[in-house]
Amino acid sequence: DLPLFNTPLTPLLQYHRKPHPSFSWTRNGTHFDVEKDSKVLMKPSSGTLVIDISGEKAEAYEGIYQCTARNEHGTAVSNNIFIRQSRSPLWSKERKEAIMVQVGVSLVLQCRPPAGLPPPIIFWMDNNFQRLPQNTRVSQALNGDLYFSNVLLDDTRNDYICYARFPHTQTIQQKQPITVKVLDMDAINETVAALYNYTNNLFVGEYSPSGERRPSFMAPLGRSSTQMALRGGVLELECIAEGLPTPEVSWYKESGDLPSSRMSFHNFQKTLKIADVMEADAGDYRCTAKNSLGSAHHTIKVNVKAAPFWISAPRNLILAPKETGILTCRVSGDPKPQIAWSVNGPVIPLIDSPKDTSRKVEDDTVILSDVQTGSSAVYQCNASNEFGYLLANAFVNVLAEAPRVLTPPNNVYQVITNNPAFLDCASFGSPIPTITWFKDSQTSILNRDPYVIHNNGTLEINVAQSLNSGKYTCIASNNLGTRENHVYLEVKEPTRILAQPEYMVVQRNRKAVFECKVKHDPTLIPTMNWLKDNGELPDDERFLVDTDSLTINEVTEEDEGTYTCVMNTTLDQDSASAMLTVVEATPTPAIVYEEPDPPTDLELTDQRERSVQLTWIPGDEHNSPTQKFLVQYEDLLHQAGVWHNLTEEEGTKTTAHLDLSPYAYYSFRVLAVNHVGYSQPSQPSRQYRTNPAAPDVNPTDVHGVGTEHNNLVISWKELTGLQSNGPGLQYKVNWRQKDVEEDWLSETVANASKYVVSGTPTFVPYEVKVQAVNDYGNGPAPEAVVGYSGEDVPMSAPESVQVLVQNGTLAEVHWEPVLTSMVRGRLQGYKVSYWRERSLHQAEAQQEEQQVLLFSGNRTDGRLPGLKPYSLYTLNIRVVNGKGEGPPSPNHNFETPEGVPGPPSFLRIKNTDMDSLTLEWGPPQDNNGRLTGYTLKYQPVNSSNELGPVEEMMFPANETTVVLADLKYSTRYKFYFNAKTIKGSGPTITEEAVTIMDEGDGMFTSKVFSNKTFFSAYTSYHPHKYLPFSIHTFLLSILTFSPTPPFPPGKEDWTKECVNGSSGSQTYLIKGLKPGTSYRVRLVVKDHSEATIHSTEELVITLPAMKSDQVDLATQGWFIGLMCAIALLILVLLIICFIKRNKGGKYPVKEKEDAHQDPEIQPMKDDDGTFGEYSDTEDHKPLKGSRTPSNGTVKRDDSDDSLVDYGEGGDGQFNEDGSFIGQYSGKKEKDTHEGNESSEAPSPVNAMNSFV
């Protein structure tokens, strides 16, 4: 069985299933009779359609299906469901001829798979089912074709096979293999090549060899193309280029940055993929293909369209009779979607439904007014454009029902002090009930601090306090009735660790005690846990956990770590940690110092109403005198289990006189202290109770501050339980308006720290005082403090605003102060807002960001710094009090005068010659006025950085370039340039330049040397005795030509060698030149900034050709035989020498060799320019001044330049005729076993030298 879909249709089916809905289906817009087809089954509970296609053709059930659900409340429909059979057609038969192509040209192997549903996945493989390797040169395009940017001989094969995998049917189709033959036209006779070109129509490309060339695009074609993408989809842009060398492809967006978080590159940078396409992704994307010969560009213009998408879908409505409701169907898309409304299914479009005055359609909105009972219905919104559609159902239920409170009654909410509390009051009714909250027997709670009533009826208390505890009643009411519900809030005291564990250093085998005393709400059940290094304590009997401590007996090194005590309750927790360090036990000293033992035998004497005398017997001091005694008390009535410090006595005393408070249940204990630490507490004394009394003190920190414009909040710090002196503690709050003849008003409250006086005038002084009262009387007469009722925003703006402009960047603003009665609060100051409208150069406004300055106090003036000259400004002023800002004054405009300009935007030096150069400049970014001109100053700088005389020139404001003539050649000049207005000159910018030196300042010569089998040339350069700069390098450039003049035009590939410069003449040996070949040589001089400061004329060198009758000794048989005989003789001598030395005989050959060295084996003499004899070993000797590493290789000094730096090759090797081939060969990667030897075969010339 194949289930087609099983999705919830609309909220109607989820929320209104009574009576149970009936289901029906349509296919291709007509009714689909499920009962007439035995292969089709509809599940009765959900309406899910199941089709059995076993043994049947699936295409018989293709089509567009839609489900409809109905009950007496209305009709809902599902989205369209498309059913199509997956297809995997066969490849059409075709005969594939071999494709012949010459080396270096581009090639495309087409795949063109059959169209399937869904489309197939394409890949290329060989006969062995191995994927063909792909890289930057060979890659598969998005359409499946295989692209070659250039072909190589290795591309010849007969098994290029394209495969198409159809994922849904799990089948793979194979295209006929394609044969590709790559020909090297340089190796084919011209006649044969012409025959191929004439007879074989399968030959790809022209006969002429395809050499290196600039890139061009194979796909897409042309300089530009367009592509469309859908919002939310995936955008794939592709650029495939051909060329030799293989081009590299890069991407950028012309009108902005690429979306880095959503983009990725594929297919070796040839494909740019952007996921989750947005409207901002539209624009021009440029792909660039680049190789060493040039680059090509292609621009793809991307247009982003969008299928319809929701901004806000229509929501279900519950309306009471005669109410008004609005259904909104907000969608967007490109093109703009068309919106169609229908009611109870698509059968009755709303626009064609019977005339109903209570229903009005306005594009994306349906307005329902004065609805009647029985008009419940399901409305459908359909939004569509050419790229898709959206369908939404909204149930409008016309219902008249009295309120119901859904929150369970008598819920108890518990919260910790200073945390928010949320009391629920979920309700249902039609019309929607109004929620009102009450606390205890008080009046209704309004939306004011600390209470917030949310739209769903929930009551929020921002910062819950103990006074917020109590019974709360929520009432839900509409015109059909009223319902109420009661909940309870309990605000608990937070859990706090009073005595935290402390860091301890304990000797091994001693005892460690961590204290952890906790205070918590007495109604909550606490749980104490101890952790070691955030894990459980070891299962060891040495660890003893008490109610307020952890004891570790006989500690070891394994006990080191961090110990944490965690106190948990059902509502909160608190924790504290300390470290334990275990040290080695020191040798037993003569005297052991320890904490004293706790005092004993505590006794209470001289018992009075407000005092008692405590005596005790000290414990053992353990060799350390007691320094003091600490007396602590516990109040079992107000804070059971919590001990407080009461007093301290000297270590020599054993009696303490204790002052007590009324209405307390005291227990006392004593701790002894010496230099080691505190003793354990003594056993508690017997309980001592004091009688209640009237309060001794009143609340402190009494303040009167208004939070609203018509109230006064009187707050104070509550008394502690010990300060209450008796039961029934309350606070008598008194207030009256200051300087007004009226009586004191009062109110008595309990368990509160503030009282709100409502209906007060705005910001007037009040006298307030708070007195403590309990069942036994009143506290002392309180002192009155002055407070103010709430502020309101000011009513008027400052007047008579004037601006006095001081200069181009500073202005003074003056105003008349606002009357105190209009401030309506505590004056904070005056806020001046000002902004720059535009420069006076500009006719149109270009308003900048607003700036604000606040002048504190009752000011009537202020300064505005940081203004821009020659500009139009606007400002206004507001008065500010503690509540906010008043209305602004009318906008006032003022202008700033001209100022000095900014620096010129740029200064460029061009067309430098021997005695002249060109200066170009741009106007300042900030003119700050009308430009009157420019000033140029310049002076020469010699080689020791000394400055010469200054020349000065003036230019009008409309000039931007000047040519300076009559300059000294080979001289460095420094230029100073600035702009001017009538106010003066602006900042100066500087530049430097060097004039070109005279061609006669240096002399360039060359010499050519020949030694039968070796040809070399010397070049030398003699610089001028004085240069205004230091020479960094001589860059010697050599151009190779054919032996026969004239020299061919076209590309000129210079071989470059870089040598260090010097102040004297410089000679450089050019090696590896071909006999009979002409060369052009030139010398380029660069300074330390790598800028070219001189280039000589080209010098033509022609090397003599090797005589045709010259015989190569390496190919003569007699010479080879002679060399073999000499080698055999040397081998025999070595064997004899070895035998003699083993027998102990003397062998004086070595001494003779040391005394008579072979004069022929001498190094090359570079100093006098002559040639010595060459040997094979000399090629591996380091240059003079270089260092040879321990591994035997020659390391090039970092400052030396070589051909490796200027050519593409990495190894400077020579071919058989002695020419240099490193420029065009890639760097060779040597295996580790090759050592320092070259992997190339030695040339005959080197072979000859090795025998000399």
From TrEMBL:
Stretches assigned to the Ig-like domain: 1-78, 89-179, 215-303, 308-397, 403-490, 494-581
Sequence intervals crossing the membrane: 1117-1139
Keywords, ordered alphabetically: Cell adhesion, Cell membrane, Disulfide bond, Glycoprotein, Immunoglobulin domain, Membrane, Repeat, Signal, Transmembrane, Transmembrane helix
Single GO molecular function: cell-cell adhesion mediator activity
UniProt topology in membrane: Single-pass type I membrane protein
InterPro entries: FN3_dom, FN3_sf, Ig-like_dom, Ig-like_dom_sf, Ig-like_fold, Ig/MHC_CS, Ig_I-set, Ig_sub
GO biological process, one term: axon guidance
Keyword Kinase appears in the UniProt entry: no
Listed GO CC annotations: axon; plasma membrane
Domain Fibronectin type-III: 598-693, 695-792, 797-899, 903-999
Region called Disordered, residue ranges: 1148-1252
Cross-referenced PROSITE patterns: FN3, IG_LIKE, IG_MHC
Location(s) in or outside the cell: Cell membrane
Compositional bias annotation for Polar residues: 1238-1252
Basic and acidic residues: compositionally biased ranges: 1148-1168, 1226-1236
UniProt xrefs under PANTHER family: NEURONAL CELL ADHESION MOLECULE, PROTEIN SIDEKICK
Family of the protein in this entry: Belongs to the immunoglobulin superfamily. L1/neurofascin/NgCAM family.
The protein's name: Neuronal cell adhesion molecule a
